[in-house]
Design the sequence.
C-alpha cells in the first residue's frame, strides 16, 4: 500500500491556486473524455470498418491523454506536477508517441473515407501520406527530448503543420468534387486544419525557437542520446508555480480537450457506401 501511495501522491501535491485549478480541469477532462468514448462505443453509430478502426485508434488516444492529464509534464524542462515514477518523462513520451501516431492514422483514415464517398481514388491513396508527416515528427520530438535541444522540437511542430496543410489541400479537393454532408465535413475539416496550422506557426514554433535561442545565450550543453535517455527516465523537476506552466498550458489544454473530441467524433462519421480501407 505504501508503494501505491508513492506512485500516486496526487493528494499531496503542493501548488499555487491557478495551477491547481488548471490541473483539476485536466483531470475532469480525462473523466469526461473516457465517458464520451464509452458512450460512443455503446450507443454511437459505429458501423463498418472505418468507424471500428477509428474507435480503436481513438481509444488509445483517449486513454493516453487521460494518463497525461493526471500526470502532466513538460518534456525538455523535465517539469512535472506530480513527483512520481508515473510522471517519468521517458514513460510519458513513449505513451504520447503511440497516441499521436494513432491520431495521425485517424487523420489519414478520415480523408481516405471522404475520398471514397466522393469517388476520388487518387485522394484515397494520397491520404496515407498524411500520417507520414506526423510519424517522422516523432523522431524529431524524441531527439529534442533526449538531447534537450528545442530546435528539433520546432521541427516536429513544423512537420505537424505540414501534415495538416497537406490534409487541408486534400479536403479542399474533396469539397470541390462532392456535395451534401461529405462536402460540409470536408470544408469543416479544411478550415479546422488551417486554424491548427496558423496556431502552430504563430504559437508553438516561435515558443520553441525562443527557448532554443535562450539556451544558446545561456550556453546550454546538449546531451548525448544515451545520457538523455537515462536523464528522461530518472530526472523530474517538480514545480507548483503557474508561471512555470502557463506557456505550455496554452497547448496542453486544447490538446486534451478539442484534440480528443475530434478523435472521438471521427468514429461517428456516417459509413455511407461500403468501401475498402485499401
Sequence:
Amino acid at each position: 500500500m505504501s508503494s501505491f501511495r508513492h506512485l500516486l501522491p496526487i493528494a499531496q501535491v503542493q501548488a499555487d491556486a491557478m495551477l491547481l485549478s488548471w490541473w483539476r480541469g485536466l483531470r475532469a477532462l480525462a473523466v469526461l473524455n473516457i465517458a464520451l468514448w464509452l458512450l460512443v462505443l455503446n450507443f454511437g453509430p459505429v458501423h463498418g470498418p472505418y468507424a471500428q478502426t477509428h474507435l480503436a485508434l481513438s481509444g488509445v488516444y483517449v486513454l493516453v491523454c487521460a494518463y497525461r492529464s493526471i500526470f502532466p509534464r513538460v518534456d525538455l524542462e523535465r517539469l512535472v506536477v506530480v513527483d512520481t515514477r508515473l510522471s517519468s518523462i521517458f514513460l510519458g513520451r513513449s505513451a504520447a508517441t503511440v497516441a499521436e501516431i494513432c491520431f495521425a492514422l485517424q487523420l489519414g483514415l478520415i480523408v481516405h473515407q471522404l475520398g471514397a464517398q466522393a469517388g476520388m481514388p487518387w485522394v484515397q491513396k494520397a491520404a496515407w501520406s498524411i500520417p507520414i508527416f506526423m510519424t517522422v515528427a516523432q523522431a524529431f520530438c524524441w531527439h529534442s527530448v533526449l538531447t534537450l535541444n528545442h530546435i528539433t522540437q520546432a521541427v516536429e511542430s513544423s512537420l505537424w503543420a505540414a501534415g495538416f496543410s497537406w490534409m487541408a489541400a486534400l479536403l479542399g479537393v474533396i469539397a470541390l468534387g462532392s456535395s451534401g454532408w461529405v462536402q460540409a465535413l470536408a470544408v469543416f475539416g479544411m478550415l479546422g486544419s488551417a486554424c491548427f496550422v496558423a496556431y502552430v506557426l504563430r504559437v508553438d514554433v516561435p515558443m520553441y525557437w525562443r527557448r532554443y535561442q535562450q539556451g544558446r545565450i545561456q550556453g546550454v550543453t546538449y546531451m548525448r542520446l544515451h545520457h538523455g535517455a537515462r536523464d528522461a527516465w530518472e530526472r523530474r523537476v517538480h514545480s507548483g508555480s503557474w508561471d512555470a506552466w502557463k506557456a505550455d498550458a496554452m497547448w496542453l489544454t486544447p490538446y486534451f480537450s478539442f484534440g480528443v473530441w475530434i478523435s472521438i467524433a471521427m468514429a461517428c462519421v456516417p459509413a455511407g457506401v461500403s468501401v475498402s480501407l485499401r
